[in-house]
Structures are given as C-alpha cells and as structure tokens.
Design a protein that fits this description.
Blueprint lengths: L6 E6 L6 H5 L10 E4 L5 E5 L2 E7 H5 L30 H11 L3 E5 L2 H5 L5 H20 L5 E6 L5 H13 L4 E3 L16 H10 L3 E4 L20 H6 L2 H13 L2 H4 L5 E4 L5 H15 L15 H8 E5 L3 H5 L1 H4 L4 E3 L13 H8 L5 H16 L2
Parallel strand pairs: 1-5, 5-6, 6-7, 7-8, 8-9, 9-10, 10-11
Antiparallel strand pairs: 2-3, 3-4
Helix pairs in contact: 5-6, 6-7, 9-11
Length: 379
C-alpha cells in the first residue's frame, strides 16, 4: 500500500475536559458536559448532572495501540484517567504526527464523547453543546487543513435549526455532518419533515454520516431509555440493525431519487451486512404489492441502485465484506482506522490493509483506501 494515498474516514478527536466549560454560552455552563474525577481514580464525563454511560475517559481515548502489545488482546483493561488520553486526540499537531506514524495521508474526524451526547433529552441544551463543539472542531482542523477534516454534529429534532447549523459548519470548512442514526419514535427518516435537511445537504455538498452509538433518546432502541438494555456484546454484534433501518427508510422513501447528489454513510458498522441487506431490499421491493411498498422508482431503478450511487459504508477490518465487494459495490466502500480508540488499527493500519485487500485489483485498492473518500468529501 506504500504507493497509495490513504484517507481514514473514521478517525476521532477526543474532546478536551474544559471544551464546553470554557466555551458554551453562559446560561448552559452549569449543565454543560464536564469530566468528574471519581474516588477510585477514574475520570468520567457528566452532562446536566448525570453520568454519560460509556464515557470513561481512558476507555474512549487512551488505549490506541495497546491491543497489539504482547499479552493484551482480550485481556485489555482500561485506565479511565484523563492523564492517559492520547494527545493526538485533542492536539492537532500531535494528530498529524500520528497520521505520519501510521502512514495515513488524511483523516475524517468524528467526536468521542459527542457520540453519546445524542442521548441528551433537552434539545435546546443539545443544540448549544453541538454549536460549541463544532466551533472547537473547526479550529482543530484549521491547524492542518490538508490533513485533518471534521464532521460537525447536527441535531435534527428541529430540522430548520439543524439545517442552519449545517450551513454554519460548511462555512467553517467542515467536511460533512453527522445526524442521529435513530430519531425518536414516530419521526423516522421516511418522514417529509426531513426534506429541507436532504435538500440542504445536497446543495452544500455535505455528506451525512450515521455513526455507531448515536441513537437519539426516545428512539426506543439502545438509546438509554431502557434500563434493562445493558448487554454491550449483544448490542455490538447486532449494531448494524439500526443503521440498516435508517438507510432502508431513506432509500424506500425516494430521497435519493429526489436528491441524486446527496451522500449518506454508515460509519463504524463494518460492511459485510450490506450484501444480505441489498438482496433483501431488492427482493421485497419487487415482490411486495404497491400497498406495502407504495413508492415506485422511475426508469426501473431498484433500491440497490440508489445504495450504490448514494450510500457509502466504512470498514476497519472486515475481510468478509471485502470478499463480498462485487455485491456491496466497490464505489461505496471506505476505510477508517478508528484512531485514537482502543480497537484502532493504529499504528499498523497499512500492514492490516495490505492483508485485507490482498485479492483486490489495483484500481479497487485505490478506490477503497482513498478514491471514494476523496470523491465523497471533496478533498
């Protein structure tokens, strides 16, 4: 892979402990996300006085590369101290140094703590949290604009407010926006209320990412509203359930037929699920009556055609997905290292990619490791 440019489409920043405390509008300062030090020495994020599940500081940002050390593997434990967070998560110059170590030319960056903040129930507080984060992210990326690219957080509880924030993100130079994977019950993505969102994303050339762990509170699905839903392994195995629902809703509602230049992506779900998903999507579309599938596409187009032209999906180490690339569509595939999180391929990304893509043609390799990302994100 040494001759290829590589773009990681799923890197992460790690939000500094004082990000919101130092920047959020004054009326929300007492409720803003912050790090709280526990008596056992661990540091955890809180928002509005409540612990944010899954945000032990070390868990999210400090374990990069540890999985490759002898004896670690499945025995990997987490040191949840702010002192252990890798500097590249919050210092752009260090981020670039780590890109160089890993042989990566550019990164597309999502949040870390921000993923879980989609569960914050107060939509006005969430808007302020996202605006504050997006301002900081734009500054972070501006330190190395050819190497680091950011994805703004967009709250679509109120679509018009979300559109305005997306417009602001585009003006600040961010590469795309991320929206919740699962909106609240009764407001799924086949609803007409999202038409202004799709239109604006197309006009702004802002790809929309559907990232793992961003279900909105009230969606009823692994969003924290069910206190009995505490099985992380089961959720991890079946996590693509939520993004499959979202993508199917968008495709079958004819969104891409109306907005042919819109791109929507599934981020950090791996990709092999897409082969079966596409087969079932086309089968049920063609086999069911108009009463069950009322929207019929023009010119004999099938749902899979819109997936191949408008949907991008990212993998990290999904060798099975690459073997199924002819079904999934090579033009839909992107790669991401998940830096600086504990499961990241850093610092062995090129070595791992070489093995996974060994049977691909040279043209396929170029598309998968950088070409598709450069086209989608206009970088």
């Amino acid at each position: 892979m040494s001759s290829y440019r590589i773009i990681s489409t799923d890197n992460h920043v790690f939000e500094p402990p004082d990000l919101w405390l130092s920047r959020i509008e004054p009326k929300y300062k007492d409720r803003a996300p912050r790090v709280v030090h526990h008596d056992d020495g661990s540091d955890w994020w809180y928002c509005d006085g409540k612990l944010i599940p899954g945000t032990g500081v070390g868990f999210g940002g400090s374990q990069t590369g540890e999985r490759f050390k002898e004896g670690r593997g499945a025995n990997l434990t987490f040191e949840d101290s702010i002192d252990n967070v890798r500097p590249g998560g919050y210092i752009p110059e260090e981020h670039v140094k780590d890109l160089d170590i890993d042989g990566i030319d550019a990164s597309i960056n999502y949040p870390t703590v921000g993923l879980q903040l989609f569960k914050e129930p107060d939509t006005e507080l969430l808007n302020s949290i996202f605006v504050t984060y997006n301002d900081w992210l734009a500054e972070f990326c501006s330190a190395a604009p050819s190497r680091i690219h950011g994805i703004g957080m967009i709250n679509v509880d109120n679509v018009q407010v979300g559109v305005k924030e997306m417009e602001r993100c585009a003006k600040m130079g961010l590469a795309g926006g991320m929206i919740t994977v699962r909106p609240p019950i009764g407001r799924k993505y086949n609803s007409p209320e999202y038409e202004p969102l799709w239109a604006a994303a197309q006009d702004l050339e802002m790809p929309l990412g559907l990232h793992l762990d961003t279900n909105r509170l009230g969606s009823g699905e692994a969003d924290g509203s069910d206190p009995t839903d505490q099985d992380p392994i089961n959720r991890g195995v079946n996590c693509d359930h939520y993004v499959r629902n979202a993508i199917a809703e968008i495709i079958l509602a004819g969104v891409f037929e109306r907005y042919p230049k819109l791109h929507v992506g599934a981020v950090e779900y791996e990709v092999s699920w897409a082969a079966h998903f596409l087969e079932r999507l086309d089968y049920l579309y063609t086999d069911r009556t108009a009463e069950l599938v009322p929207n019929r596409f023009k010119n004999g187009m099938l749902p899979s055609d819109f997936f191949h032209s408008n949907v991008f999906i990212g993998f990290q180490e999904d060798g099975l997905g690459i073997r199924l690339r002819d079904i999934i569509g090579v033009n839909s595939l992107t790669w991401g290292s998940d830096y600086p999180h504990h499961e990241s391929t850093f610092p062995r990304s090129r070595e791992i990619l070489e093995k996974i893509l060994a049977d691909c043609t040279e043209e396929e390799k170029v598309k998968i490791v950088s070409g598709n990302a450069a086209r989608i994100y206009k970088i």
